[in-house]
Specification:
- By secondary structure, the chain is an alpha/beta fold.
- The protein has helices at 3-16, 20-35, 38-41, 59-67, 141-146, and strands at residues 45-47, 71-78, 83-89, 95-97, 103-105, 111-112, 120-122, 127-128, 134-135, 153-156, 177-180, 183-186.
- The strands form three sheets. It has an eight-stranded mixed β-sheet with strand order 6-3-2-1-7-10-11-12.
- A hairpin with a 4-residue loop joins β2 and β3.
- The radius of gyration is 16 Å and the shape is globular.
């Protein structure tokens, strides 16, 4: 078994141990920290995935963005080509659950968004280091996507997702910021 596989299993186990109350309370704290940041305040077009399972709840972040008249763009994945195309959504009625369990835009309801339009990209993941290294779900979609943009990246994480080491490969892209219930951090070895 690979180190990445083992770490993914460990983090999934930790996330599964969160009670519903902890999950809700910590997700709300993370959402508040993100929304009070200058990065969020100055962003008009935000790329984000719709959370599932025990990922930090992005639905409340998306709803806050709509309330603030921001544009939300959600990816549609092409698993054959390992690519993502983002589409603006204005309601959760604009998405559907795909056969892989992802909530993705309905193509007849959403308009595509150019990569250069993004002011902020919220990057999902399972494990994160304080230096901005990230372990995703294994598809490499975001690593391929992030080389095409200079937009700031941020990940939302519960304390149980923060680890000392993430096994990385040459193509892995670090994130710029990390939001936890305890703070909003610029990722660098000196920031924590």
């Amino acid at each position: 078994m690979s180190e990445k596989w083992e770490l993914r299993q460990e983090i999934k186990k930790r996330l599964g141990a969160l009670t519903d109350e902890e999950y809700e309370r910590l997700s709300e704290k993370i959402a508040r920290r993100l929304r009070s940041s200058s990065l969020w305040i100055h962003s008009n077009v935000i790329a984000v995935t719709i959370s599932r399972g025990r990922e930090v709840d992005t639905k409340r972040v998306i709803e806050a963005a709509w309330h603030e008249k921001k544009t939300i763009a959600v990816p549609r994945t092409n698993f054959k080509e390992k690519t993502m195309t983002f589409y603006a959504i204005t309601s959760f009625n604009d998405v559907e659950k795909t056969e892989r369990g992802l909530f993705e835009p309905k193509l007849d309801k959403a308009a595509p968004i150019e990569i250069k339009a993004f002011d902020l990209i919220i990057v999902p993941g399972l494990a994160f280091t304080k230096e901005g290294l990230r372990l995703g779900y294994g598809g490499g979609f975001y690593d391929r996507f992030l080389v095409k943009t200079n937009a700031p990246t941020v990940s939302l994480a519960f304390p149980c997702q923060i680890v000392a080491h993430v096994p990385t490969e040459r193509h892995d892209r670090p994130i710029d910021y990390l939001v936890t219930p305890d703070g909003f951090y610029r990722c660098s070895p000196l920031s924590f």
